[in-house]
Sequence to fold (317 residues):
Amino acid sequence: MMDLFVWLEHTPIANAIRTTRWMYPTFETSHYIGLALLVGGIMLIDLRVLGFARTLPLKSMIGLLPFVWVGFLINVLSGSMLFIYGATSFGVNHAFWLKMTFMVLAGLNALAFDLSVRRSKVDWVGADLPPTYVKAFATLSFVLWLCVVTTGRWMAYI
Amino acid sequence: MLGFLAWLDDTQLSHFVAETTWVYPTLETMHTVGMALLIGSLGLIDLRVLGFKPELPLLETQRLLPLAWLGFTLNAFSGTLLFISDSVMFYSSYTFRLKIVLIILGGINAALLGRKVFQPGPSGTAPSPPTVGAKWIAGTSLVFWFGAIIAGRLVAYTP
Fold:
């Protein structure tokens, strides 16, 4: 594993990120913009499923998912760049691996949510009556993304 | 001003934030979550005013405002403490000053937008679609808030 991190850290692109002054701050800034779209969007959807701002149609709020995906893509790309910049230190950072674990869990949870929207026999989205298990997905999603942000911030201090 | 800030940097609170292991990252995390809440909800209102997602009832998007306020409060609180931890540095940073200006402009914009868009029309009438003026406010609001994110990140890299 360490060999891979060493190799990653010496790829031309990693060298470029280290030596070009503007590249690291640009990726970092992109990561924050992606975060605002991703986490901002997800929290709005989760809270709406849980009953916040009921007068906004549930269907259109779930329709914000494309924004979330754009934020996710921005962050996978910028995050990968930030990772290879310092692969040998991030690769052994416990907060980083916790963050990745929370992201996988949040991803699986989002998949379960998505499937329950697509596969439901009753139109609970249109009727604005999310079943209890869907509310559980929404709660879990909110908590997991909070954990992703928290562990992400703590990476610099562990 | 610098004299006052130098005193501020030497208060117990400043040392507490800067030197206690868990405090600084916790405040930073709070600042990040508050940002997502504030910009997520205000950004959606701005986009709706600009004509995006027309199926969201425009007047009802003001239900998101409490969330924006929650995010703002979290960030005013965490931001103030982070500032106090190293106030001379932040105050001297042009990028930080720019960030504060952008936040003030964003706040003024949000207040203007509230008056233009969320004022109830004559009773019983459907609210009129946003005017060009309201759209300008919404568009610049997005620029100010995303500008504030960018400036905030760049404080660490610029004078």
The mean pLDDT of chain A is 94. Chain A touches chain B at residues 25, 28-29, 32-33, 35-37, 39-41, 43-44, 47, 52-57, 59-61, 63-64, 146, 149-150, 152-154, 156-157 (CB under 8 Å). Residues 2-157 of chain A form one domain.
